[in-house]
Amino acid sequence: xxxxxxxxSMAGMKAKTIGLILAVSLVACAASFAANPQMGTxxxxxxxxxxxxxxxxxxxxxxxxxxxxxxxxxxxIDPSGKPIHVEWSGKFDGKDYPxxxxxxxxxxxxxxxxxxxxxxxxxxxGKVTVTGQIVVSADGKSRTVTLNGTTPKGKKxxxxxxxxxx
Length: 166
Description:
single chain; alpha+beta; ten-stranded antiparallel beta barrel; 1 helix
């Protein structure tokens, strides 16, 4: 007696296996991003912050991620006191990615130091204008952004902005 396999049932099993592998991969990917303490919505705590007059002040920051890409949207006040919106998309891999809406930069990079710490660098026409560090607290409820740089008018500054998670 010969055992003959049904080709239709084999194709169905392969499709189910591939579907299961994709579902498990998506869940694992989502879990890894959910564990990133940088992700979420952050509001500036002005009482705990020290922002140099005449520099940008980001009052609301949103970090989101999708398929390995990170998107950061910030709203705040520009050096002249007018509302500003800045957007950046890329990876935390130390490479420069375009930034829009920032008068002091046309590219920005982020490098992951550890689970709670990033470093950042802004560049304008290839020249570094701002460097900094972003640290999320151990409880994940706040983050401190320390930036050192030079304004478009050539003034040096150091800002320490503290944000509360929303």
